[in-house]
Design a protein that fits this description.
There is one protein chain. The chain is α/β, with parallel strands linked by helices. The strands form two sheets. A six-stranded mixed β-sheet has the order 4-3-5-6-11-10, sandwiched between helices. The chain contains 16 helices and eleven strands. Helix 1 packs across helix 11 and helix 6 runs parallel beside helix 7. It folds into two domains: about 300 residues, Rossmann fold, CATH 3.40.50; about 50 residues, no CATH class.
């Protein structure tokens, strides 16, 4: 099957098909395994908003820096440390002597709060459906321990709203397998009914090649045969993604969080695409707990990270890419994150594509 898929992708000569990767890991794995190099010129891959760090708005970083500058221990995953705010990054705050700690899991932040009862501790809760259950478990643990000095600065997001917001930027989606391992396939079926096509893909070279080939075949066949405006959908990652997803993980999310509007860097506010702590857990909501002031939106002059996230341009079309903006000196979040499109294009020679 893999050899057949490779041959099909190499030799495809039908109408151009635009496929948006809604997952930063897909973007990197496709580059790392040389899959872009075997694709027909008629198959165009677009890197979309599938990196949670990349779509985190600058105002959120300013809120995190505000907390660090006000003697709060800020705990975060490593990628966020270098994401620029409007004036500086958390890396600069750390260099200034502020308590910015890199952790590997939200539970690490709970442990830091437990071991430092005289200090306030905030975990930067950034991610999609995949990581949100772990954030909820951290709140559950902190509540069970009776910790009053632990909270989340939440910027959790959900993918369905992004799928709908970006549907006019692509012909079909390469859906992220790990997200749908949590949420199941319902939203993909719903979108297909609305005319949006896509395939859920795994992460190995074989899984990606197969998903891309089946996706192109399915899209063309659906467009040829269908007399309606419906799209098509296919689960190419059945060993991990089930129709029902992970009910326990979804139950955990729903217990602690509820839908809210969310600001996506480069896209803007997407209604009901965010997750906020329920009022029952307001004591663990850093935004409310510290009465963080509203931050004025800033901008990285010349950076087109937002256009990259929307699939309007490829990273090398940004005037700063590979010049002012490089991994050691990132101007935008897309170059910072290990899942960012600009990082992938830079690391794997995307300037030549």
């Amino acid at each position: 099957m893999q050899n057949e898929s490779i041959e099909f992708l190499k030799n495809y000569d039908g109408e151009t098909v635009n496929i948006m990767e809604v997952c930063g890991t897909h973007t990197h794995e496709i580059f790392r395994n040389g899959i872009r190099n075997i694709l027909s010129p008629k198959i165009n891959l677009i890197s979309g908003p599938g990196c949670p760090v990349c779509v985190t708005p600058m105002t959120y970083m300013d809120e995190a820096i505000y907390l660090a500058d006000n003697d709060v221990i800020v705990c975060t995953f490593g990628d966020l440390v270098r994401v620029p705010g409007s004036r500086k990054s958390l890396a600069v705050s750390k260099a200034e002597g502020k308590a910015v700690k890199t952790v590997y899991a939200p539970m690490d932040a709970v442990e830091i709060a437990e071991n430092n009862p005289d200090r306030e501790v905030v975990f930067l809760s950034v991610g999609f459906e995949t990581t949100t259950p772990a954030d909820c478990l951290a709140v559950k643990k902190a509540a069970a321990l009776g910790l009053k000095n632990f909270s989340l600065l939440a910027a959790n997001k959900t993918m369905p709203g992004a799928y709908k917001a970006m549907k006019d930027s692509t012909d079909m989606y390469l859906y992220p397998g790990h997200v749908h391992a949590i949420t199941g396939t319902g939203i993909c079926r719903e979108l297909a009914e609305e005319g949006v096509s896509g395939v859920i893909a795994g992460f190995t070279p074989s899984e990606l090649v197969t998903a891309l080939a089946l996706g192109v075949k399915g899209y063309i066949q659906n467009k040829t045969d269908s007399s309606s405006n419906k799209g098509f959908y296919m689960n190419c990652y059945p060993r991990v993604v089930r129709d029902e997803g992970s009910p326990k993980a979804v139950e955990m999310i729903n217990e602690f969080m509820e839908e809210c509007d969310a600001n996506w860097r480069g896209i803007g506010v997407i209604p009901a695409s965010g997750l906020c702590l329920r009022d029952k857990y307001a004591d663990f909501d850093a935004k409310k707990k510290y009465n963080i002031p509203d931050m004025e939106p800033g901008s990285s002059r010349g950076c087109r990270c937002g256009d990259v996230l929307q699939g309007k341009i490829k990273p090398m079309e940004c005037p700063l890419f590979g010049k002012v903006c490089v991994p050691d000196n990132p101007v935008g979040a897309c170059m910072v994150s290990s899942e960012g499109a600009c990082s992938a294009f830079y690391s794997y020679g995307g300037t030549l594509l």
